[in-house]
Each structure stands twice: as structure tokens, then as C-alpha cells.
Amino acid sequence: MFEAPYLLFLGDAPDGLAAKMAQGIYDWRPEAVAGQFRMEGCKADMGVKDMTIKEAAEAGIKTVVVGVVNRGGIIGESWISVLGEALEAGMDVACGLHNLLRDEPALVAAAEKGGSKLHDVRVPSVKYPIASGKKRTGKRCLAVGTDCSVGKMYTALAIDREMKKQGLKSTFRATGQTGILIEGNGVPLDAVVADFMAGSIEWLTPDNDADHWDIIEGQGSLFHASYSGVTMALVHGGQPDALILCHEPTRETMRGLPDYALPSLEQLRDTALTLAQWVNPDCKVAGISVNTQHMSEEEALAYLKDVEEKMGIPAVDPFRQGAGRLVEALQCL
Amino acid sequence: MFEAPYLLFLGDAPDGLAAKMAQGIYDWRPEAVAGQFRMEGCKADMGVKDMTIKEAAEAGIKTVVVGVVNRGGIIGESWISVLGEALEAGMDVACGLHNLLRDEPALVAAAEKGGSKLHDVRVPSVKYPIASGKKRTGKRCLAVGTDCSVGKMYTALAIDREMKKQGLKSTFRATGQTGILIEGNGVPLDAVVADFMAGSIEWLTPDNDADHWDIIEGQGSLFHASYSGVTMALVHGGQPDALILCHEPTRETMRGLPDYALPSLEQLRDTALTLAQWVNPDCKVAGISVNTQHMSEEEALAYLKDVEEKMGIPAVDPFRQGAGRLVEALQCL
Lengths: 333, 333
Known about the structure:
Chains A, B: InterPro entries: DgcN-like, DgcN-like_C, DgcN-like_N, P-loop_NTPase. Chains A, B: This is DUF1611 domain-containing protein. Chains A, B: Pfam families: DUF1611 (PF07755), DUF1611_N (PF17396). Two copies of one chain form a homodimer. The first copy, chain A, is an alpha/beta fold. In chain A, helix 1 packs parallel to helix 6 (177-183) and helix 3 (80-88) packs parallel to helix 4. A six-stranded parallel beta sheet of chain A has the order 7-8-6-9-10-11, with helices on both faces. Chain A has a five-stranded parallel beta sheet with strand order 2-1-3-4-5, with helices on both faces. Chain A is built from twelve helices and eleven strands. Helices cover 35% and strands 17% of the residues of chain A. Chain A has two domains: 6-120, NAD(P)-binding Rossmann-like Domain (Rossmann fold, 3-Layer(aba) Sandwich); 139-332, Rossmann fold (3-Layer(aba) Sandwich), CATH 3.40.50. The longest helix of chain A is centred in the C-terminal third of the chain and has 15 residues, at 265-279. Chain A has helices spanning 20-28, 53-58, 80-88, 105-114, 152-165, 177-183, 197-204, 228-238, 265-279, 297-311, 318-321, 324-331; strands spanning 6-11, 33-38, 63-66, 92-95, 118-120, 139-145, 169-173, 212-216, 242-247, 284-290, 315-316. The interface between A and B is large, with 45 and 45 residues.
């Protein structure tokens, strides 16, 4: 869709979570990332070389990738001049936000001037069907979370990478902008029209070999008042054989919803399984993926042990420990 | 949005359910309907005067309303010539389907020729916010169903009509094309982009007087694999104080999903209540609305009595019995 090397644009990200798109690209395609651009007050940092737009052009950057999200998915007003400068210097700009680059006259003008391109990866490019609910061949695993931004994409990518390493048949199925940038294709689910959400996921995960796994990236949370409908479409469209529960134990309230505490892993398990078994009676919860980035190693291991005993299924942090035990659990279903 | 008198276009509807949009308009605005147009093989019938397009023009019809839905919500190819004839004769055409009248060149040309207008009521005209999940003032009631097309809109309209008759403060909140045609405003929820679904319902049912009821039209079903995400957004965006369970007892498989039986009323109650109480812990299931149109009076009354005893809450068919007992139940919550 667009070419490396990338300059990751982190804008004025208020925290690391706001730059999860950039983090995802860097974690899974580090070889494609040559630098980052941070505005004043930016609280995110990928740990790569900071570049000005001039330096980026001199370094041969092909694409500036907007790797930051603000609430509502809008292109920040303060970003326009920076992105415009990059476009005028001949670099493409890629963006997965709700508001489109192509709707910003200043950017359209800058791209024309620089002979560069605007890539709105968020716009669905396929006419999705209405979901049929018909049973499909092959295996599917869906990551579901107690909240948004708890590591569902990371978990799915780690499982897919581990499966491939073991010589198993596996495909990462991207459902969000970052995942699509990483995988090269997918469904930008949160931009799909309501009636076609589940159908788009059926389309993304078609009939396959009996021993092939689709590892489906999750979105939102069944318990997140803003986005639960999107998650529901993944559960019913994805027809999962296995669910991986994803959680971030230090989160006190749900992302963007200060009035809501997170559900427990038991609540997530019971609700997600009940809903998933409606379309696939054999669906099971295979394991738990915990994002322990805000805990010490000792705390993390103690927490994982505790959760594993309480829930009776493997609980790991794939970032610290790899996804081997999750893959083992999927193979034993 | 467009003017009466209407000619209801029933096209080649394979059954009465396919013409539920026309039926809804006729049930709630009978004074606006002057006739119907049925093509060969049409199995739907509103019981009003059949008219040719020529007769409709002579009778002073202002708008031909497309009152038929086929799977996927597409404008039938065989409809184009009829609708084109109406447009050329100077009548407007209104339509709530996925495919837009404005995207059919033959219709655009016919409208230009006839000086008439195309009304695509399905296109959202508002930029909806992301849902905040914040508690709102006023009371809200949401109709949820064991399946699509079981009478959720009818139930909501009947409750609203009964509340107004009793002098209570009530507003019918339309979430589908038919409801919007009836009420004059609302959210065409199934056409809203995924991320904004719950936000659109918050927008539709804002803060209100403590004793005011929003009676929210339901969509889809939490158990319908194609549309459950849409229903989920209604449950979390609507923040209901009360749920009315809607059911059609003679339905053997879910609409459009021949592989799926309907869930039980108990399954619907437990799942819907669990999900609704996440955003409104005080939410209760107030009553059950049963569509007994395919049962005899005797069968219907026996069934309702049985359900009421089993579930412990009022069970009525508002079409046969009115919505009085449902309103009473809502007032007693």
C-alpha cells in the first residue's frame, strides 16, 4: 500500500497508549522504521531516532506514518503544517484515522505540490456481504479484552508468529488500522457500516484447511460502552473455536470512560463464551494474555500464577514470555 | 421530509415480512396512505387500493414510498422501471434501503425529467459522537428481540402511543428507516459507521425530565449473527432502565439464518439484562411483547398466560390487547 522506510509521526500524543499504532508497527516491522517525529509535549517515544522533516527527507524516508490517535480519531489541527511540510518534501503520508487526509485541503494541496500521495488506510475498499452465520471450515481464534488497548493485537500477532515458527498453518487477520499496516491487508472494522460488520469478518476469515488457524485481531471490548457493538460483530462474525482473554491489570477505569471500572476476567469469560457459543457451540476459552508492562517482573509472575490457578487455563504475558503456551493450549483444544 | 399522500411500493415482496416497512407506515400513519403498487408475484398486501402508476398520478399521490426490503437492502433491478415511471410522472420517491436512489442513473434521469425528487432516508445526516457512557437523566425503555422482525418497532410505537394517551411524557425514538418515516426523525442505525453506533443512540436519547420516557425502537437481535453488533450498540448506547422482550413464537429459524433456531425468552432475558446492567445497574426486564399474528385468539391467549406464569412478568400482544399492561409495568419499576 505504501513504501518503507517510515518516519513514525507521534504528534502531540498525551501518553504512550495514544501512540499504540506506531508502537505496533515498530514492534512487528522494526526493519521498516527509520525514525520518529515528535511535537512539543509529546509523551510517547518509540526509542528510535528523532528526525525533523528536513532530516527525514535527507534520510530517504518514503512515508510518514501517522502513528498517533486522539479521541474520536481526528487529524489534529496542529499536525497539518508538519504533515504538509513532509508532503511538499515529496514524502507520502499514511493515516488510519476517522478523518481522512484527503478531506484536508491543505494536505491535498501540499501533496500536489510535492508530487506525493495521501494514503487513507481506514477507508474500507471492499463491499462486504451481510453475515450468513454459516459454519466455516478451518480453526479460528479471537482475542477479546476486558477493555480497549489491553494488547489484543499484540497477542494475536505473537500467537501467529509462534505458530509460523512451529510450522503450523496460521494467518494473522487484521481488523484495525495498525494491524492492516503490519499485515498488508485486513478489515478496518470500526469504519465499516453497522449492518456489514459481522459480514466483513466472515469475509476476512473464509473456509480454510481443517488444520489452519485464523488468528483474529480483536477490537474494543464487550464491556466498553462506546465500542461493544464492534466487538460483538467480531464474536459472531468470527465464529471462533477459541477465545484468548486479554487484560491489563493496572488499569483502574476503562479507556475513555472514567465512570467505568474494568470487568473481571471471569465476567469477560462468561459473557464472551456465552455469546460465542451461540455461533460455535464448541468454542472454548483457551488461555489468558496479560499485559504486565506496568508491573515488575516479580509482580507480573506472581499475578500470572494467581490468575492461572484461579481460572484454570494458561495465563501468560506474550511480551515477557512468548506465546508458546498459548499456542500449546490452542493445539490441545 | 416528504409529502403525503403516499403510494406504498411493495415490489415483488416474497412475503409479508419483506414489506414490514410499508406495514409499519400504514399501521401508524394510515391517513397518509392512499394506495399500494404490487408487481407480479408480490406476496404482500396492505389491504389498500391497488393502483397503477398512471392511476396514482391521477389520484394526486405525492410520494411513492419503497416499502419492501430484500436481503442486503438492495434496490431491485425490476423495480427501476416502475419507480422511473413514477418519477417521470412527477411523483417523488422515498426509500430507506442500503443502495441509494441517487446512485441509480436511470432514476436520477427520470427525476430530472419529471421535476421530482429522490429521498434516501437511510443516509445519516448527523455527525454522531463517540459514546461517553455517562449516566443521563430521564427514563429509557428499549425493545429487544429473540430475532429480527418480531415486532420491536410495533411494540415501542404502541407503548409510546399508550403513554401519550395516559398523559405521560414519552417520545418514540426511531432507529430504523420505517420508524424514521413514521416519527419524522431518528437514527438510521444500521447505516451508521461502527465506531459511532453507540454514540448515535446516546445522541438520540439525551438528558431529559426525570419522569420522561424515551421508548427506543430496537434493531436486530443479540442472537442474530448478522446484526448482533447493532443491537449491542443499542443496549450500551441506550442505557435502558427497562427492557421489553419481543418474540414471535411460531418462527422456527432466525430470519435469514436457516441454520439457527431462536433463543428462548429466558436466554434473551439473561443475556440482555447482563449486558444492559453494565451501563445501568438498575435496568430491569419490565415485560414481554409477543407477536401472535400467526396464532388463533385462543392459542395466543393460552401462550401469553403460559409465558407470563413462567417468566413472572406481564406478557401481552400489544396488537391484540394494547400496550396498557406494559405501560403499567414500566410505571411500577
